[in-house]
Amino acid sequence: MLMDLFDRLFPINRSITGDGVRQSLRILGEIVPIRQREYSTGTECFDWTVPKEWNAREAYVKDSQGRKLIDFADSNLHLMGYSVPFRGSVSREELLEHLHTRPDLPNAIPYMMSYYKENWGFCIEHDRLPEFTDERYEVVIDSELKDGHMTIGEGFIQGASDEEILLSTYVCHPSMAINELSGPLVQTMVYRYLLQKKDLKYSYRFLYLPETIGSLLYLSQHGEELKRRVAAGFVVTCAGHGESFTYKKSKRGDTLSDKAAIHVLKQSGKPYKVVDWNPFGSDERQYCSEGFKLPMGSLMRTMYGEYPEYHTSLDNRSLISEEALLESVQMYVDVIETLEANETYECTHVHGEPKLDKRGLYPYTGGNRTDAEKRRIAAVTNLIAFSDGFADLIDIAEKLNVMGKDLRDPALLLEQHGLLRNVNVVDRLDLAAHWG
């Protein structure tokens, strides 16, 4: 399914506005419910403004023999994003001023855009420059730049609590695999998985945004609400390539998002690295800005800027695999299940050890025990010992070198027997009362 979706989405010319975004969201909306929200050109979002809507239908450069040397139909990346309409004959010198290449990657078409200054241009492989020997060229750019709308996609699952886990990805890059489609594909599969779950503790919000301007716009409309409700969150991007994982921390660096993601990566057995937040990258720059400081990290594989094909036509289908995408989906699912399982308990029996066998929690007889029995006994005993009202299940799991989510069932069992008290329940009731 994932690669079929990829093949449908890859040819679409996406930008920060326009029909390409809407078409992409409709396709993803066949898998999960995504509501499209439209915001008019000129809408203010802090220091920014929603730009004019841009759509392109045709663009090419012909030589004196009428041959198309550059054709937007061959690759979306041939046309610089947000190129204004243009028709005319230009000299070789003028054309070269509007051609963009990557000398360091001579066989790659670079990704270029000019969102906030009207201009036009084409992008080609650097090795092709010697083909342009004529004195004059015909240039046609059949595009439209007008007052319109910017589109944001949003999905939501209501859980038992109004506290939210926020997942955010971007849909604004044309025909790139790692830096564009891996994010929406992985997020959509996580969303699909959660739709099938019952008794979710948290509510879940899924945003599909034009990068930067989209998150700024959403924060300008809903930022204060997110500050109250978001318990953890992740920017989903660069999730389809590489053997190892990268986790970029939130700006605070010690949030529940950071704690859960790093814990799961440790337990996964996969190679990984953790990097601190910095003001370069994706929408974590906006979510973690001083006015919001949301607990937003980013769980990636090979991150943006760390592979040579980044922002070029070489970032294509050959670089990603369904196996890598599904492994990323599973990693996010493990993080979410850890968040769902995580609670803070307080042991109610503090004068020595409680007698577990009379409660059916410890075998009456000694002797050989199965590995499963040993794990259950260890979990029960350690939960009683370390549940002090401050350490949560992730903290205790870290001491035991086990997955936090695997402590959920023994903790619930001890709670049923009155040996543990969930201190988070009171906190959530107080929070619900505060929100009304």
Automatic annotation (TrEMBL):
Keyword Hydrolase: yes
Source species, domain of life: Bacteria
Designated name of the protein: Aminopeptidase-like protein
Molecular functions per Gene Ontology: aminopeptidase activity
Domain DUF4910: 4-342
Transmembrane region(s): none
UniProt KW keywords: Aminopeptidase, Hydrolase, Protease
SUPFAM superfamilies: Zn-dependent exopeptidases
Domain DUF2172: 53-144
InterPro entries, sorted: DUF2172 (IPR032610), DUF4910 (IPR032589), UCP015244 (IPR012353), UCP01524_HTH (IPR032622), WH-like_DNA-bd_sf (IPR036388)
Domain UCP01524 winged helix-turn-helix positions: 344-421
Taxonomic source organism: Cohnella lupini
